[in-house]
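[retry 2/3] ORC1/DEAH AAA+ ATPase domain-containing protein: previous attempt timed out, resubmitting with same input.
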Amino acid sequence: GRMAVIAISTIATLFAFAVYHFSGTSRYVSRACNNVETYLPAHVVGQDLALRQLVDAVCEHVTDRPTSSSSSSPLEALGLGSKKSSQAASAAAAAAAAAAAAAAAASASSLQRKPLVISVHGPPGVGKTYTHTLLARALYNTDPAAAGRCPGEGCRGAKVLYGASYLESQRSSQLAAVRDAVLDHLHSTPNPLLVFEEYDKLDCESRALLRQLISHPELTNTTVNKAIVLLESNLGFLELEELLSAAGGDKRKISPEVAESALREVVLREWRRAPCEGLTDTLAFMSTVDLFLPFFPLAREEIARLMEVEVAVYGHRLAPHGAVLVPEPAALTWLVGKVNFAGGEYPLEGAKQVATIAMKYLSRLVRQAQNELAQEQERASKKKGGLLAAVG
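[retry 2/3] ORC1/DEAH AAA+ ATPase domain-containing protein: success.
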């Protein structure tokens, strides 16, 4: 793929993005819902509340809705299709059916013109980026587990925009590039997935474009009804920690409504600190967000589960030599103890340290074991060859 650093604005802006373009599937696969429902929960640890809502929302969104309730004629649907029906009755029925059809079409159009917009919040390292990566694999690949790098080859429909600052001298050369790139993606992709990371840091011009794409796509001659838009942010992690502490660390005691209310409030407060539009417009834009999903801090036992998975990855390297890696509970506890919890209940960097710690303490040991096993197999093979020669 190729990468272009572009600005999301029609005038000079303080926010830039790295936008990645890839070739591959741009339509949701037929089993997208099933993929999302099975693949994401199997890999994301500690975020059951967010995943349940995400799965339900995505499954409803990718399910085709009928545009009409029946293939029969309006008169037949009203029981007036007989040739013996009076002309007046036929005319009245036709008029009523036409009005109903128009109302249904208008309703369907209203329901289908809006993309699915989900705002995802939580501290770094708790699975937000991992989740949208798995979502892309599930939406665009029949077998998500066999997908290549994604977003990337195999799921061209996904586009991720990463926030990055750039120098003032570069503004003029970056004026409307992101607008063109995003619109091109929406125009060329039947079923797009758009991910905006750190969206709470958008400047006014960037917010205006995002608001226009979601609230008024007709102004850009864009059809976004099939799109899924993920807005990701670290904003609200303190509020989520407070909710979790109040629940005694039990995430099951936190309702979706309570978490959503806290996140909506913090986003509104943050956006009102640097108002780019009137309060009415801000509220209208926030109303287009279908869900505010909480990605909570990870508890020690969840870090332990992730460490166990990481250890298993190293264990797979021994399988070709006929060996297995079975860590003792004390060894896993020791590895988890290397994660920086800073004296608190939750790790400062979420799960980011898990892979690094496993690499530090397992990589060399596993390579040594591989070499020893390979040498042992070689000696056994030579010995077997010598015995066969002696017998011969």
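[retry 2/3] ORC1/DEAH AAA+ ATPase domain-containing protein: The mean pLDDT is 79.
[retry 2/3] clearing retry counter.
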